[in-house]
Amino acid sequence: YPVNMKLPSTLLHKSNPNPRVSIEDILCDDCILHILSYLDPSDLLQVEQVNQRWAALSYCAWKHCQELKVSKTVTCKQLNDLLERTQKKLRTLDISNCSDSLVLTKKVLDSIETYCPNLESLSVADNFMKSSAARLIGDKYPNIKHLNLSYCENVNDKVMKILSSKCVNLHSLNLQGLIRLTGSCFSDFKSSLKSLVLRGCYGIKPSSFRILVEHCPELKTLDVSYTNIDTETLTYLAKYLPQLNSLRAEGTDIEWRSGPLNSLSGLHQLDIQDGVKVDDESIKEVCLSCPNLRSLDISDNYLVTNKGTTDLIRLTSLEELNIGGTEITNFSFFTKLQKLRKVGVTNCKAVDDEVCLQLLSNLPFLEVLDIENSSATWLAEELAKERSAILGRPVQLHAVEVF
Asked: What are the F-box domain coordinates in residue numbering (predicted)?
């Protein structure tokens, strides 16, 4: 129970005086409701099966539910039942991956509108969406702030134009995997947009990104991984989006050594994993252009060697660093980055138990050490446990992925 929670006097006994009475019979309703408030919706459904009392209490607990993610097999009727339980308090709804059992028809969208009048975030990823459904979403939820349409079959520029013209208060938009987009819809995007994911949208023309900048000048988070964006276009984006603090550009042909990020000194997160032209000179230029980085992923770039580490140590604000899959074999530079909380060295065969010991001993704030597919043995896990005990505080090394 939470430290500041006042428990019924019956719970202050060291043991149950009547062994035939179960603990749920001892707990008062308020206490059970408090416990249920920590459960997610799927667990609440299970609790309903215990007995009539718990079913009634579980139903009451739904009024605290503001987020709901449904299973892949939910039907329209089942969705109605779930939404009704939330008593119109729902703000986030995720019906992704339900295309086999739930089609975005007018009936489904009407149900969502009825039971979710305060909806702010909607995810319909991996569903088939017709232009009529897009128009309905725009009509019913004009004030929605977060929309996830990733991998929605049939979503093209026409559909996006409809949505963009109606959903005028969008703050974040996920269009990952929409291969039919060319970018002509960007001219209808609104200036309220702060976060945009275009990952895998390889049909977008480089020239369309310039249109995006003109209509979304307040973007702070942008993902252009695995798109056809080029060096010249990225340089243009950086120049006119100086407030950008998160950029993901995995798997691109960008020439990083030419300094396309010179205008983004305030960038906090950068992901250039699996880049075609990422080498030591690229790392040098990135470190010079973005000295305030807190998170950097340069994994799966085999042209990055130990030479690049001489520049990485300049990033003294780094909290997350992933160098997995590079040719870096000297890991002593990590000790210069004392603020690191998360380190990724996956697929680095040079990482053994001794390296793990050095990282665990010399990085005081380390929480996550990912050494999957390295040369480390089971001793690494024991070292992590021992280090946690020495620190004398709750275990922060919560994910040592080795075995």
From this structure: 27-65
Bridge partner list, 344? 322, 370
Taking alpha carbons only, the member of 89, 136, 139 closest to residue 116 is: 89
Class of domain 66-229: alpha beta
Is residue 224 within 8 A of residue 252, CB to CB? The reply is yes
Describe the crossing of helices 206-215 and 231-240 by its angle, rounded to 10 degrees: 10
The structure's pTM equals: 0.84
User: What is the Cα–Cα distance from 51 to 287, expressed in whole angstroms?
Assistant: 60
Name the fold adopted by 1-64. Monooxygenase (1.20.1280)
Distance, in Å, from the CA atom of 391 to the CA atom of 364, rounded to the nearest integer, reads 9
- Compute the C-alpha angle 62/68/72, nearest 5°: 125
User: Which residues make beta-bridge pairs with 248?
Assistant: 223, 271
**What gap in Å lies between CA 389 and CA 365, rounded to an integer?**
14
Longest dimension (CA), the chain: 76
Report yes or no: 200 and 225 within 8 Å, Cβ to Cβ: yes
Q: How far apart, in whole angstroms, are the C-alpha atoms of residue 401 and residue 403?
A: 6
pLDDT tens string, the chain, 403 residues long: the values are 344 444 444 444 444 455 555 555 667 777 777 777 676 666 777 777 777 777 777 777 777 778 888 876 777 888 888 888 888 888 999 988 776 667 788 888 888 889 889 899 999 988 877 778 888 888 888 889 999 999 988 899 999 999 998 898 999 999 999 999 999 999 999 889 999 999 999 999 999 999 999 999 999 999 999 999 999 999 999 999 999 999 999 999 999 999 899 999 999 999 999 999 999 999 999 999 999 999 999 999 999 999 999 999 999 999 999 999 999 999 999 999 999 999 999 999 999 989 988 998 899 888 888 988 888 887 777 777 777 776 665 434 444 443 3
From the centroid of its chain, how far is CA 191?
23
Classify 286 as helix, strand or coil.
helix
Can you say how many angstroms the Cα of residue 297 is from the centroid of all Cα atoms in its chain? Answer: 15
Nearest to 235 by CA among 215, 257, 251: 257
Q: Give the residue ranges of DSSP H helices in 167-205.
A: none
Q: Where are the domains of the chain?
A: 1-64, 66-229
Residues 109 and 137 sit within 8 Å (Cβ to Cβ): yes
